[in-house]
Automatic annotation (TrEMBL):
The modification 4-aspartylphosphate is found at residue 61. GO terms for molecular function: phosphorelay response regulator activity; transcription cis-regulatory region binding. One of its GO terms (biological process) is regulation of DNA-templated transcription. The keyword Transcription applies. Keywords: DNA-binding, Phosphoprotein, Transcription, Transcription regulation, Two-component regulatory system. It holds the Pfam family Response_reg. This is DNA-binding response regulator. Gene3D superfamilies: 3.40.50.2300, 6.10.250.690, Winged helix-like DNA-binding domain superfamily/Winged helix DNA-binding domain.
Amino acid sequence: MSGFPTAMRRPRILVIEDDALVSTELEAALDDFGFDAMCVATGHQGLQQALDGAFDAIVLDRMLPDVDGLSILSTLRNVGRNTPVLILSALAAVDDRVRGLRAGGDDYVTKPFDALEMTARLNALLRRRSMSMNETGLVVGDLELDPLLRTVRRAGRPIELKPREYVLLEYLMLNAGQVVTRAMLFEAAWNYHFNAQTNVIDMHIGQLRRHISLNGTLPQMIHTVRNVGYTLHA
């Protein structure tokens, strides 16, 4: 379910969260989805663990009782720690989300959260980091995406995409075989909170489908999951 081969070690996730109930639920969900979670309840503990430990990603509560979450994030980035950080917060306003991302956050999830969406976002962060470290492209079937050149090819044929179409495709490929929600896709491409009333995602996905199927000459790879979102597979 986690998207990681069983032969690989379980990714280590540091959870910095002062709410004991949220922390317990999150630890159980991460364990179910193939992660190894360490939970701490204060900002000081979290910062120390983040600096001392080898974690693959960090889930950081925005509002901690002793230290502001963004201060922890800024400290990590200032000392050169590039561990992916997913900010978890009850603050859902666009300004709060933008502030978190500008401080160095890699993703932003608001409370209450869905465990499936949370783990999917963590998987995407880890895949993106791995892709960056290895400087390799994404390949799903005969569809190829090169993040360095920002090029896309299907069956060896180049595909021209608009910037947001490229971001949407990259996100789908990072989560190939998994269901991603419209909110996840919207926030990946527009970097602010999803409005359930908008159909902008469906419009862009429709255009993206036409592009990567080469106007219907090749089998469709993006499939609708009713009332949830989309999944991409060969």
